[in-house]
Task: structure prediction
Amino acid sequence: MPEAESYSWAEQVEAGEDGALPPPTEEFNESSGIKTVKEYKHNEDGKVVKVSTRERRKAPKSIAIRKTWRKFGAAERDPPGPNTSNTIVQVEPFYMQFIHNAEQVDQETEEDPLAKLKNQKLVSCRICKGDHWTTKCPYKDTLAPLQEKLQEGEKTAEAPGGAPGTPAPAAASAQPKTGKYVPPSLREGGSKGRGETMQSKRDESATIRVTNLSEDTREPDLQELFRPFGPIQRIYLAKDKNTGVSKGFAFINFHRREDAARAIAGVSGFGYDHLILNVEWAKPSGTN
DNA sequence: CATGAGCGG
Result:
């Protein structure tokens, strides 16, 4: 709130001869975050008054507090404030544009969105466009989708007169003029073999399934029971997802298949709690 | 009796 004060004699002296007013002063109190501006104006009666305006800092106090932090590391001896040799202070707000799906943006027309969905598969693998989720894509093993694409490419190449405006989908993947990501295994010459670093699934070859467990058997119990046969990689005790109650069976993943085999021989038929355990080789999950 | 969970355009 601007407030007018009477113009003191001492200050009158500072005013210039020709009625010019003294320049405004401005001071900033760092701890309170309040800026005080004092300036001189003529009021309605033509008299000179001093107007002081106080304004609270708009930036959050947390910023002011951060400014008081000591610098450290290579910047330890830097003077306060940003070092212009390695820091850019952006005063203007800056806006970022997020593009969620470039293809969608490109194809954005007035056509009915439902029509678009119509001939679309429910799921489509991002890698091979197959009829499954990407995480399960076995493209390294079966290159059928890629080969289909290549065949399509050959067809369009053989028919140079056909549909000039229509881009061939295979051409896009063969020549990366679209900025689209192509996984290494699908890039040119990448058609052979799987990547050495990528195991396609968990190794289930040393996994056994234990059934007929009593409901109060816990994972540590299983650990104790099977440890004698060899190092164990993982134990999974099936539980109801909501109640946490054991479903009475479990999977034991050994490091070595031979240990698993001995565990089957040793524990199957073993009386545990009041039940007789059944142990067999596990089948990989997802066998519907 | 019984073959794990989760992520998701």
The mean pLDDT of chain A is 72.
